[in-house]
């Protein structure tokens, strides 16, 4: 076993050795990418299943429009709390500590929805569900980012976002099957069904190692060396990590000042603008499509079709993230998806085909902004505060998303579908302006270079 102090000293001296940032992608990276997709998959599933069950659930619990909005928004409020708390904890105690516990909590809270008897019970459980999902976002993405080689980091982190739409698609497909076959309590079964993928991901994650970068940031050099040899092979060591020592006295409060404060503002703003229209559409897809005179099976399968196009948009963005670059992809994503929302707002009485095509256009083009939600926050902050930064950005973005989701049923009833789409267009334009003014380009940088304030 190499002595920790010797290794620590030699890390500084061995800058000419090969970097792990340039190591080949291996089976561990691929498995870890899939395991880390639990948060976005379950996020998409749990949020979207509400749209499927809303009509039956509203009738069974005699919900008001305000209660409907609170139920849809409660998981987002929970993500606000869980994201920040989970990020701070994962930076303090390690990525591995919460990696399993959050999925245990998620499975239990999902099952609990089956027995609710009031709106407030459901709001409380979905608040707790959101906290579990919110906590998983920073710890899973930070762990993954700290293992991935530079060449594949952007595309594999971005692929996690696509799993949100896979989860949403699964919610609509299995939700519709349950609603058609489970009788009067079908909505209860559909809500509780999120426990099944939660348990599957829980079993898959067992045995995942701690982040070598996090261990090194805490001075645990020998443990970091063991992890590197296990993941990459005996020919590698911490000498190949090229991450020297913890940056001086970085804490969660570093995220509120200097260059990191500007980065948190950028990430939180573009993330908020990317998800507000998406979350609102998914939470109330059948109702929104009904406002465009698409009802019954047309609304149900229209929701599925739009979700599939969302996934296709993310897949296209994965192919563009390196050749096009992060900055250009973000700007163009907001521009063209926003124009689709503008046309929906200007022409709310269009035919069913035109309406679905415009929704499809939004779903296709917003993929660029969506896939960058995990890439930018993990690249722009150092190991010592990476989890806290991702958690804080997750939390701040959910404030706007929760408000937007809560206001959708009220907006539909008060100002109509056309003006609601125009408001969503305005949100997208804010995102585009923020991207033009603040988005950096990080595609050619290694993780330490991208996180350095000197690269701002």
TrEMBL record:
Coiled coil: none annotated. It holds the Pfam family Sugar_tr. This is Major facilitator transporter. It is found in: Membrane. GO terms for molecular function: transmembrane transporter activity. It comes from the Bacteria. One of its GO terms (cellular component) is membrane. SUPFAM superfamilies: MFS general substrate transporter (SSF103473). PANTHER family: SYNAPTIC VESICLE GLYCOPROTEIN 2. The chain crosses the membrane at residues 34-57, 69-90, 97-116, 122-144, 156-174, 186-204, 264-284, 304-322, 329-347, 353-376, 388-408, 420-439. InterPro entries: MFS_dom, MFS_sugar_transport-like, MFS_trans_sf, Sugar_transporter_CS.
